[in-house]
Amino acid sequence: MPSIKNNVDLKSANETTGSKGESTIKRKGCKDIWNAFMCEGATFTDNDIPICPTTAKELPSRIILWDEAKHIYKKQNRYNKAFHVDAFVCFYMDDYKFDGVKEGIWYNYRRALEILSHFAGVITPDYSTYQDFPEPIKVYNTYRMRTFGYWLGCHGIPVINNVRWGTSESFKYCFDGIEEHTIVAIGTVGGSPRQIIDRERFQEGLRELDRIKKPSDIIVYGSANYDCFNELMDKGTRVFSFPSHTAKAFEGRCAE
After folding, report:
1. Cα dihedral sign, 229-192-188-105
2. What b/e readout covers 197-208, taking b as 16+ CB neighbours within 10 angstroms?
3. Residue range 193-243, pLDDT digits in tens
4. Which partner for 15 in 11, 64, 174, 190 could form a disulfide, CB atoms 3.0-4.6 Å apart?
5. Burial of 215 (0-12, 13-18, 19+ CB in 10 A)
């Protein structure tokens, strides 16, 4: 299990290091409230998005939501501090459930790391980039997806990059920080591409993802029963669909 202790997250600015590793003296008492420490050692794209390597060596056997992971942790950690669950954790859910000020993974990152370290891996957070969001927020949320994933990878947690795009203007940054020919993950729960009004936009983004990054494998949380995924499979890309939490719950009710 990776160490949870991190001695650089709140260090004062006078303890920072320059590009060659030398100490730089700045105003004392500054605090890193932007989680810049998560990017330590990272390589950045032209858009200043950190590159998040895919550190997962195998495809998930199971995918669960962050809420489920927290529930498992609360139950198991009482009796076995070293418990391990063979499942990847994803964040295909409403942002407020994982991005709150007190309990959110970006702010309470130590707790998030402690919980996630007990699972087989993580699909990077699905911070929203809704079409009607201001562009700076969409870029920032893309930045946070890659930054948090990079940081988890540095702590030895297997990571798979989540990909999220909006309309075509987001293509200039939404695929940043993802290496070519790697495993990526996409959520199809919610609006896209299930709603016809969004399907064309979704398909355009998926084709652009394939053109730019050429992923070897695509994990789909939700249904992959769409022509755009069939197109990629015909070209040799492997697509693996995992049922969403809602779908599994519905199947369970139908089986009763």
Report:
1. positive
2. eebebbbebbeb
3. 777 878 899 999 999 999 999 999 999 999 999 999 999 999 999 999 999
4. 11
5. buried
